[in-house]
Amino acid sequence: MVPALPKTRSGKILRKTMRGLADGRDEPVPSTIEDPSVLEKIKPILAKGSPS
């Protein structure tokens, strides 16, 4: 579980960015993100992968 999901100011979830982070890519932070600190909080969780 993650504390929050990264969203744009209009409320859309940044799925592509999260997918890239989960795949180990260094995704650029979109300028429309509501709270950039959310990505830093979930980056280590996404890097671990999903529990099996």
Task: Describe the overall structure.
It comes from Mycolicibacterium hassiacum (strain DSM 44199 / CIP 105218 / JCM 12690 / 3849). This is Acetate--CoA ligase. InterPro entries: AMP-bd_C_sf. The longest helix has 12 residues. It is built from 2 helices and no strands. With 52 residues, the protein is mostly helical. The protein has one domain. The model has no long low-confidence stretch (mean pLDDT 88).
Rg:
11 Å
Oligomer: single chain
Return the structural class.
Answer: mainly alpha
The largest sheet is: none
Number of domains: 1
Strand content: under 5%
Can you give me a brief rundown of this structure?
This protein has 52 residues and is mainly alpha-helical. The chain has two helices and no strands.
Question: How is this fold's topology laid out?
Answer:
Layout: H1 15-22, H2 37-48
InterPro entries: AMP-bd_C_sf (IPR045851)
Protein name: Acetate--CoA ligase
Region (Disordered): 19-52
Short descriptors:
mainly alpha, 52 residues, globular
